[in-house]
Write a structure and sequence with these properties.
A hairpin with a 2-residue loop joins strand 6 and strand 7. The chain is built from eleven helices and eight strands. The chain has an eight-stranded antiparallel β-sheet. The chain has 278 residues and is an alpha+beta fold. Helix 5 packs across helix 7.
Length: 278
């Protein structure tokens, strides 16, 4: 994701902690890294966290290289082939980037022939490009143009009417502690979007609503069944994303992993489905 430096002078502790693994793995672009480095220059606690994560990755690499040297046990060829085929079907997760350039075949042998304990993102469901764009836009935390505390909730559909070429119908989440905070006009690449922010018991969630009659919105993630509907869930850059469709309308709900885990996110979406509509 790309965060404009003009929007955030420097990351705060919460933002950096959410994306510390991406920072250590070198996934940040130049503006994001500049923001993170500016924060780390003045925050001893976050410097210690980044150093600990970097040390963990260095230890993993050292352990694997140690396991690769004789007399390391070689896994049976049939097992190695199955593991390599399974890895090839998956998207490239963070732990493979962290261990690069160790070959997949060697890593498979290590996994089968040596006991190495490490944290992994294998199996993580990655968001598609447009869901990535939603994460980026939500992370920027731009000011809201419609503030529910001042205007109320009922006027929100009418407020969007002269700003979009479609009429979004923001859902009302029937979950305890969830309330509408406000809204603004947004954009996800070529899609105009309604952005609606909700307060959660812990943190906040951002909902993007776009009109997609051609079914071109690239969701990514993993399909799961919630109630009577199939949604797609993904995780990236410290955020969980849930995407569902109601006819031509696509809803993308973005929330920090520390604010709401994937199971709680699915439950939140379930409470909103009956209220979704065009």
């Amino acid at each position: 994701m790309a965060i404009e430096p003009s929007l955030n002078a420097a990351m705060d502790c919460t933002e950096l902690e959410r994306s510390i693994d991406a920072y250590v793995d070198g996934e940040f672009d130049a503006p994001e890294r500049a923001e993170a480095d500016l924060h780390l220059a003045t925050c001893e606690r976050c410097r210690a966290l980044a150093g600990a994560r970097a040390a963990l990755r260095a230890a993993v690499r050292a352990k694997l290289r140690e396991a690769m040297t004789p007399p390391a046990v070689r896994a049976p060829d049939a097992l190695r082939t199955r593991i390599e085929a399974d890895l090839a079907r998956r998207r490239r997760p963070l732990w493979r980037r962290a261990l690069s350039p160790i070959p997949v075949a060697t890593l498979a042998a290590c996994a089968a022939g040596a006991v190495v304990v490490f944290w992994t993102h294998a199996g993580e469901a990655h968001p598609g490009p447009l869901a990535e764009e939603a994460i980026t836009s939500h992370h920027r935390d731009l000011p809201l143009d419609y503030v529910a505390a001042s205007v109320g909730e009922s006027a929100l559909p009418a407020w969007f009417a002269d700003k979009l070429t479609f009429r979004p119908s923001p859902p009302r989440f029937r979950a305890e502690g969830v309330s509408l905070e406000g809204a603004r006009f947004s954009q996800l690449r070529e899609w105009e979007a309604a952005y609606v922010r909700y307060r959660l018991p812990r943190g906040k969630a951002g909902l993007f609503i776009v009109d997609d009659p051609g079914g071109r919105f690239d969701v990514g993630g993993q399909a799961v069944t919630v109630g009577e509907r199939t949604i797609r869930v993904a995780r990236g850059h410290g955020y969980n994303v849930a995407v569902w469709r109601d006819d031509k309308i696509v809803y993308s709900l973005v929330v920090g992993e520390g604010d709401l885990d994937e199971a709680a996110l699915r439950e939140l979406v379930r409470t909103a489905q009956a209220g979704s509509g065009r």
